[in-house]
Recover the amino acids of this structure.
């Protein structure tokens, strides 16, 4: 007996297949498809959910396949979390911000650098990490007796910095081959425990409305995009391999330039907790240039770290928005 599908049936099957391709692309590199599906996955979920509701009314239960596949393979893109009042003096706070060189070469706002530093002062986080920092402006940050300015003369890498109110007892670089991107880390002594903080800035796909509408966005561009995806995935593997070798509690944070539906995110998150998923609210977007809620900046923590709060800040001083968390290290499982 030949199955007959009407137009809505075919649309539902098509959207289910799209979710399936999105799942596959979060495990293996499918080139431009990986980027495309990692961005539109929330929209695919919404479309599949609407079709699932329609299918239930029509008793066409295969309509729910796409929605179930999404829920089984991915986390939800919108969070509602209870935010406890901050009355515990034993918490530690950390803020991450891609400051885009303090906007000194880009922004029309000549006071952007000063405003960014004022914002940092107003938050008063115990630890602050910057991506795409500026050596000149990074020295103007006050109130942090311990810092790691990842500047090295004659080495052309994106500048990363770590500031801390707690002693930094060890630090180092993770250099990514054939890339200006890199990561740094610092071992920070917090009371009786040592916390390792990784500050990472991973390879960007360099996608913008301008690029997508220009005629030079031809085969050569998409070929280079595939190379960038491979670089980013390999960079994620290097960080995770490095983090797996330490006995300290670990937080991996920074600008990953990847959505939660990407292979990069899957690699870095493995056996770690995403602070937004446990303690965040709303869409959690950190990048706004494409007028679409993209979450590209993260805090991922090892099991002994209990995140109390996750904050997103609506601060229009860079192309990224800052995020911060407050956390405690479980006393019964301390690593030294």
């Amino acid at each position: 007996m030949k199955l007959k599908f009407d137009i809505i049936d075919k649309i539902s099957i098509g959207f289910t297949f799209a979710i399936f391709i999105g799942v596959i692309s979060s495990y293996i590199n499918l080139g431009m498809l990986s980027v495309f599906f990692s961005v539109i996955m929330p929209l695919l979920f919404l479309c599949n959910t609407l079709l699932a509701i329609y299918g239930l009314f029509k008793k066409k239960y295969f309509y729910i396949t796409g929605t179930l596949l999404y829920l089984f393979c991915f986390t939800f893109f919108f969070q509602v979390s209870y935010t406890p009042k901050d009355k515990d003096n034993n918490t530690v706070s950390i803020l991450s911000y891609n400051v885009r060189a303090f906007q000194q070469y880009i922004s029309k706002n000549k006071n952007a650098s000063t405003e960014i530093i004022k914002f940092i002062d107003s938050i008063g986080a115990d630890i602050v990490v910057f991506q795409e920092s500026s050596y000149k402006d990074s020295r103007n940050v006050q109130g942090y007796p311990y810092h790691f300015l990842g500047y090295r003369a004659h080495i052309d890498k994106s500048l990363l910095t770590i500031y801390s109110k707690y002693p930094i007892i060890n630090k180092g670089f993770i250099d990514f081959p054939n890339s200006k991107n890199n990561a740094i880390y610092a071992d920070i002594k917090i009371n009786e425990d040592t916390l390792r903080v990784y500050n990472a800035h991973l390879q960007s796909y360099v996608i913008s409305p301008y690029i997508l509408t220009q005629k030079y966005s031809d085969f050569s561009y998409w070929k280079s995009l595939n190379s960038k995806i491979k670089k980013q995935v390999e960079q994620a593997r290097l960080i995770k391999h490095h983090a797996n070798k330490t006995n300290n509690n670990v937080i991996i944070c920074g600008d990953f330039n990847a959505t939660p539906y990407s292979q990069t995110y899957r690699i870095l998150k493995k056996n770690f907790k995403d602070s937004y998923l446990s303690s965040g609210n709303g869409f959690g977007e950190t990048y706004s240039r494409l007028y679409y809620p993209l979450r590209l900046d993260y805090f991922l923590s090892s099991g002994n770290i209990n995140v109390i709060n996750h904050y997103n800040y609506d601060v229009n001083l860079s192309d990224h928005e800052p995020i911060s968390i407050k956390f405690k290290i479980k006393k019964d499982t301390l690593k030294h």
